[in-house]
Amino acid sequence: IATGCWSPRLAAMAGAFIPLTPAVHQMKDIGPVPFFADSKGDIEWPIIRDMDTNMYERQHGTGLEVGSYAHRPILYTPEDIPSNAVAALSPTEFPFTQVDFDLQDEHSLELMPSIIGDENVREKYAINGILSLTPDGMPILGETPEVKGLWSVAAVWVKEGPGTGKSVAEWMVLGESEIDLHSSDIARFHEHQKATFHIKARTHEGFNKTYGIVHPNEQWSSNRNVRLSPFYDREKALGAQFYETAGWERPFWYSCNEHLLAKFGEKVMPRTSEWEARWWSPIINAEHLQMRESAGIVDLSAFAIFDVTGPSALAVVQKLAVRQMDVAVGRVVYTPILGINGGFKSDLTIMRLAQNHFRVVTGGAHGMADKKWFSDQLPADGSAHIVDLTSAYTTIGVWGPRARDILASITKDDLSAEGFTFSTCKMIECGPLRVLASRISYVGELGCELYIPIEQGAKLWDLIWEAGKKHEMIPVGIGVYGTTGRLEKSYRAYGNELETEYNVVEAGMQTAKIKDQEFIGKEAHLRHRAEKPVTTLCSLTVDDHTSSTGEKRYMLGKEPILTLDGGPIVDSHGRRSYVTSAGSAPSLGKHVLMTYLPTDLAVMGAKFLVEYLGEKYPVTVAGVGSAPLFDPTNERILS
Description:
Elements: H1 7-13, E1 21-31, E2 48-50, E3 55-60, E4 63-68, E5 93-95, H2 102-111, H3 113-116, E6 122-133, E7 140-143, E8 151-154, H4 161-174, H5 196-207, H6 232-237, E9 240-245, E10 248-254, H7 260-264, H8 274-277, H9 282-293, E11 295-299, E12 304-309, H10 313-320, E13 332-338, E14 344-354, E15 357-362, H11 367-375, E16 385-388, E17 393-399, H12 403-408, E18 425-430, E19 433-438, E20 447-453, H13 457-468, E21 473-475, H14 478-488, H15 522-530, E22 535-542, E23 561-562, E24 579-585, E25 590-598, E26 607-612, E27 615-624, H16 635-638
Parallel strand pairs: 11-21
Antiparallel strand pairs: 1-4, 1-6, 2-3, 3-4, 5-6, 7-8, 9-10, 11-17, 12-15, 12-16, 13-14, 14-15, 17-20, 18-19, 19-20, 22-25, 22-27, 23-26, 24-25, 26-27
Helix pairs in contact: 9-14
């Protein structure tokens, strides 16, 4: 289905769903412009993007096109698009509404008075053109979850058309695209994100961001509070600042921890620049430091959780996981999930709960795509099944040096290092509750994740909260869990470091041995293991944050890594080095950047530059491969 704003209607005929909204983009064509009189082709002059006004001006032959994304959002439904027979112009060209363009006329005149203000330059035509908007602003590509064999290539704009067509063709024919497309995968949408209300709310909000300068951490304001954890009211009372993931409201930090700023002082690495301080708080770093001293309780309700069961359950997870899945009941396996070319489809955790029962835990944002990938591998004979438990279970993380003491005070089960070893899970009793405890960590501290039916979650939170008081436990937000704690341990994140364009060896995640059983991507993975890696994932620290104005600046991610003479760094596969993740490492007093470097350059102590907002800052390689920056022997986790 590659029918633009009609795609939802066509998909519905087959029982599939494509969540997009037809929206107006206004444009005028004026001319002839004397300045362009000698133009030989349709496009000779560069386009001008006026970011202050969300407009563009583009030469077209002897005319000038003036377009805007600054006007009010004008949305339609796919059913509103007229047929060819009744359309006044064409089905996707609605009559121009001048009142919505009055301010844009003023802006274009201010920018180009000699052209726009020329009385001899006339308006040739003006339209309310229709384009496709999606709830998250990304295209909708891939095989539909509802109908096998039916593919979507929707919400693709003209400039992306050729590249998108090539990539989707590769995906359809070869099973995978050369370019990572996970952020455009149609399987990413959760059910609530397919609701008409959600689609309209997000596209209405998103229209004016199309051309706007959007902060990388900016949050949506529309259609919030759709999915609330059982601890939401408690977190709100603690001053939680909520960010949204897959509809879930997740505390990013807690204002109740503001008093810790005085305790830790400059160790919280305050930011004075408004841009970097936006959508951030030094409280995040204070929570991090306090968790490293005592303990923190973390709301992990946004996890996507699904069970794989049945006689062929082992065969299914074995086919998908790089790691060995024929393990003892009670083992927890963190594993990459690969595509056919050996790049990352996902990374996730699988617990073996019984002989034919595996529980998969993955990130909420990518959970539905993971679920589809697993579902696609189910045998046709019905000998394995997938059950989505995301809305049935909630998860609490408790980590820190005192985590064991806190949990031991509410259970009689053995939580000692010998009785509850790392990478295992078991049922424990916490007061009147039975809880599945999984001893893993994404923050580099002793502790575990606790899974419980969602209706019992508040009770478990209260038990832990009360027990944690004498141990100085605090509530800790996702700012620590997803950024500071992760970066200090050099842990990778899917969608940042882990993409289909990079492989396990390049990411430093290969194991000493490879399992005998077949799995998707094994042939490519064996080849990657036999070859010298083209690039290697590294952790860099920023040596000096001082800008030309004397203000300290902190990178946020996606910035280019350069040679000391300011040149780009490109590996032999044509991949440029850029910041995949960025954030504070409060325990180290450093700002950490993760990046892939050509293997010959991936050397401890090597010096480079990072370019941020037009200025260059010195950085040093502080970690190569999987080596953590903090607690390199993992003593804290394994204690």
